[in-house]
Write a structure and sequence with these properties.
The chain has 2 helices and 2 strands. By secondary structure, the chain is of the alpha+beta class. The chain has one domain. Helix 1 links the parallel strand 1 and strand 2. The model has no long low-confidence stretch (mean pLDDT 85).
């Protein structure tokens, strides 16, 4: 399983990634957690 955290790379994205990794470990899941930051693209999409 892959869990992708998509966002601009803000503090909330970092916290979400950390919490996801803790949850995966606590549940004993075989999952890969990845964070993809695209600040410029996200800023353009919000405009």
């Amino acid at each position: 399983m892959q869990i992708k955290i998509l966002g601009p790379g803000c503090k909330n994205c970092v916290n979400l990634e950390r919490n996801a990794r803790v949850a995966v470990a606590d549940l004993g899941l075989d999952a890969e957690v990845m964070r993809r930051s695209r600040p410029l693209l996200t800023a353009v999409q919000q405009a």
